[in-house]
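FAQ: What does the model actually see?

It sees only this:
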Amino acid sequence: MFELLEKTLLAGIGAMSLTRQKTEELIGELQKQFNLSEEKGKDLFAKMEAAVKENQEKLEAVAREEVRNSCARLGVVTEEEFDKLRQRVLVLEQKVVALENLPPASPPEVSPLVPPTGL
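And it is asked to produce this:
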């Protein structure tokens, strides 16, 4: 009976995330209703807490991935892409400053066009 109760509770936790206080209250009620020992109650609490944490981590990972996908669909650049672009702009700005500080170059000599012979 305890195993069935445990499995049912662990399956139910997959659908929701309980706070520690609510979980403790639930375990206390279950201990009274099913005459669970304190040790079994603590064991059940530890399993429920682990399941909640695992489900919370999975939910966070899914949420992060969905945000990434949404940003990609909208064309929003990632922080990494933005940093690369920032670095390229800095390099280009340095090159522009360096070019601005060069003395003006004399125009190249242009030889007059000589019409082709034999026509």
